[in-house]
Amino acid sequence: MGNTRQSVLLETYAARQRAIDLLKSLQSAQTECEKHLEADKRQDVMKTLTGCSSIESAIANTKRMIEMMERVLVDAESMASADEHAGETGAPTTIPAQSDGCRAEVVARIGPSLMVARSAVRR
């Protein structure tokens, strides 16, 4: 199970880094887009209609995704530490995490079973 958990953690770290790179790219594109709009003396139609441009929404969503991945990584590291201290008892461990309108819950069973992650949107 250690190899599976380590593999998932490595994939999550890599996904987080890709999201950080995407965020930088979106922020750069936003700056360029705003310069073009200003030079052409135009307004962003989406921002005029909704109060938020498409690129601002993408940036906000990417930031939330990065924050969520960071919380998952912290929770997973805490669980790994708890696993080392608890031993192989087979007892379940639940670590809840909350974010912007979403409730994420990581459930792990110490022992041979696999870690499961669930997330539910609050309405």
Walk me through the structure.
It is a single chain. The chain has 123 residues and is of the alpha+beta class. It has a domain of 86 residues. Helices cover 63% and strands 18% of the residues. The chain has three helices and three strands, in the order αααβββ. Strands 1-2-3 form a three-stranded antiparallel beta sheet, with helices on one face. β2 and β3 form a beta hairpin. α1 packs antiparallel against α3. The relative contact order is 0.13. The C terminus is likely disordered.
State the main characteristics.
3-stranded antiparallel β-sheet, 123 residues, alpha+beta, disordered C terminus, 3 helices
Query: What is the helix tally?
Result: 3
The proportion of strand residues reads 15-25%
Rg from alpha-carbon coordinates: 20 Å
Largest sheet: 3 strands, antiparallel
User: Number of DSSP strands?
Assistant: 3
Helix content: 55-70%
**Which class do the helix and strand fractions yield?**
alpha+beta
Low-pLDDT stretches are: 92-123
Q: Could you say which overall geometry the principal axes of the C-alpha atoms support?
A: elongated
Strand order of the largest sheet: 1-2-3
The overall pLDDT, averaged over residues, is 75
Q: Could you spell the SSE succession in H and E letters?
A: HHHEEE
Kindly report how far apart the N and C termini lie.
35 Å
